[in-house]
Structure formats: C-alpha cells, structure tokens
Amino acid sequence: MNGPAESLRVRLHGLGFDEVRFASAMLGPSSGLSEWLAAGMHGEMDWMERSAGKRLDAAAVLPGVKSVILLGVNYWDGRPPVAAGRPVWARYAGHADYHDTIKPALAAAGKVLEAELGIGAEDYRYYVDTGPVLERGWAARSGLGFIGKNTMLISRTHGNWLLLAAILVRAEIAPDDPIRRAEPARAAPHGVGLLCGSCTRCLDACPTQAFPAPGVLDARRCISYQTIENKGVIPRELRAAIGSRIYGCDVCLEVCPWNRFAQAGRRTLLEVRDEIAGLSLREILTLTPARYAEVFRGTGVKRLKLTGLLRNACVAAGNSGDRGLLDELVVLAGHPAALVRAHAVWAVRQLAPDDWNLRLATARQAEAAVEVLDEYAA
Ligand code: SF4
Ligand code: SF4
Q1: Ligand 1 binding site (Cβ under 6 Å of any ligand atom)
Q2: Where are the beta strands (DSSP E) in the chain?
Q3: Where are the domains of the chain?
Q4: 14, 79, 127, 150: most buried by Cβ count inside 10 Å?
C-alpha cells in the first residue's frame, strides 16, 4: 500500500471515476497493435497507423513521462439491450458525448495531481479515447482489467462496461499490479483472453464473423466500424447481418459472462439522453436537419452527420421486413446525397423485390437505382 498513490486514488474516485489505477510508463501498454496494423485490419482508420508510434510509446506523447493513470467510468445501466420494436444503438450512444462530459473531470483531476504530486500543468496530459494513447493496453498493464477475446477491456467488477481515460504524468506513482492467473496461463499473445478460459461466446455471437482469431478484430467486418467510422458505402455483403443496429454494435460485449458482475453505476460523469433509444425507425428515416440537430445536439452521433444516420437507417429498414416503411424509403431514394440514395434504393429493393423499380419514379430515384444496379453488375 502506497500512501500518496492511495490518497490520489481516493481523490480521483471522488471526482466521479469508478476505477483509478496506476501503471509505470516504462513498461508500455499491453498491445498487439503492430501486428493488427500490419494485417490492414484497421480499414480506413489511417489515423491509427499514423499515431502508432505514439500509441506504443507514451514518451513520444509526453517526454519524461513516468506514470500513466487509468480512469474508468462505469456506464452500465442495468437495462435490457434493446427497447422493444426500436432500432438498436450501442449502449454508450444513449448519453451525451462522453468525451465532453468526462473532460471537465479530467481537468479537475489535473488540479488534484498538481496539489498531490507538486507538479505543474505542463507535467501531465490527459486523454479520453481520442488521443494517441492505447487506453485499453495501459488499463490491462495497470490491472484495471484484462483484454478479452473480444478485444475489449474487461473488468472483474464492471464487465465490459467501462469508458476509459488516461493521464500521462511526469511523476513516479507506485504502479498497481496487472491481473495474473493463479495457474500458469496458456500462451496468450499480449495477455489477450487471460481470464476467458475456454469461453468463445463473443467470437461465436459476432453477426459478421469479424474475429479472424481470438483477440483479433477485423474492423472492416465490424458493425461498429461500418456504422460509425466508415463514412462511405456499407459493403453489401455485410448489410443483412447488421439487422436493426443503427449505430454501433454491442453483441460481443453483451454476451460476455463477466458482465454478471456489473452493477448500475453512479454515472455522475455521464448525461443520459433517453430520447435517442425511444426513436422509431420511421422517425429516424424522416428526420429533418433541424430535428436531427435538436435530438443529437451534444452527442457522439452528431459526428456521423444526418446523411450517415440516414444511410444506417436505410440498411436497418431494408432488413426490417416492414413494407410500411416503403414510402419513407422511396422519398430517401431521391435524397440530395448519393450515399443516402444508394442505400435507400437497396432497402426498397429488399422490401419490394417484385416492383421496386416501379416505385422509384423521379429522375433522381431512377438515377440512384441505376447506380445500384451498376454496382450489382460490377
Ligand atoms: S461489435 Fe459486433 S460486429 Fe463488431 S466484433 Fe463485436 S459482435 Fe462483431
Ligand atoms: S465472451 Fe468469453 S471469450 Fe469473449 S471476452 Fe468474454 S469471457 Fe472472453
């Protein structure tokens, strides 16, 4: 037990962080990043490649760094994953953008560090998911959890439901121990699957078979990547498996048995936005720019932009089997954005295979239909 580290931990807990752990910056994060990038599994996320050096070496981000503080925010709310009859959102999407709501607490944490460690504002740097810091790898190094076969950081007390932040600090803080198995671990590269045992639930449940191996995620096949990060066309061969998921995917998280330990948290650093999960697919398909701005103001979904959300809604509608959505889709088949038009035509074709072309009457709809047919022919 280390006095200053424990006092720091208590004060950071008091700011709303549910987990506070420390790692030595000397060891580097647990990571299979280099191999993953070399295999091209990051898709179009070029920024991952550009920042790889920094992600693997904290000193490249903050020269002289000695410690990394890992902070976890529990976002489990105990609710069933899907609101009946509604499109499916990743759990974190039902909140205001957590980057924005957690950052003020990180700023306050910086002041605590200055007071407790006698350092200046230039001696630390904090990130919540958006910087060149491998939070998951550092979190595993600090014993906050282990990296599961689903590639997520899994906590023994919160399951898969932690949002992570990291603070790099130019001061020595006694590190916490990483998780170790009582019995000798079977060969697990970078500690992946350390406490998974023989479980393969996440690998088996993935709707798009996005795991070529345990602990290796091919982002190009992942629904989260396709519905959030990909700004272009969603590959046709993945659309059916996307089902009614409109933004992200939690399947490989939801099935994990470690979630049985999760408890609904304080969530003091989160702002719940219930209206998002309550939206029907029809309401989303008919969102105007003004309504979109109103509903998604201050949320992460805003970065997707209305065209991206409409694209995803068209895929969900095409998978719904609900011909009652055809009128809305036909309107979207004439949308100014070619991205929306192409996915709307695809959805009309799914729902009305016999007369889909008759429904697309305007020049723009017909043009979109031709684009889609060309794509089929290619
Ligand atoms: S998020 Fe969904 S699609 Fe992506 S790997 Fe997990 S289960 Fe598969
Ligand atoms: S579902 Fe099973 S294999 Fe996958 S991360 Fe959880 S414990 Fe590990």
Answers
A1: 206-208, 210, 217, 222-224, 249, 251-252
A2: 19-24, 67-74, 88-89, 124-127, 146-147, 153-154, 162-169, 245-247
A3: 1-272, 279-378
A4: 150
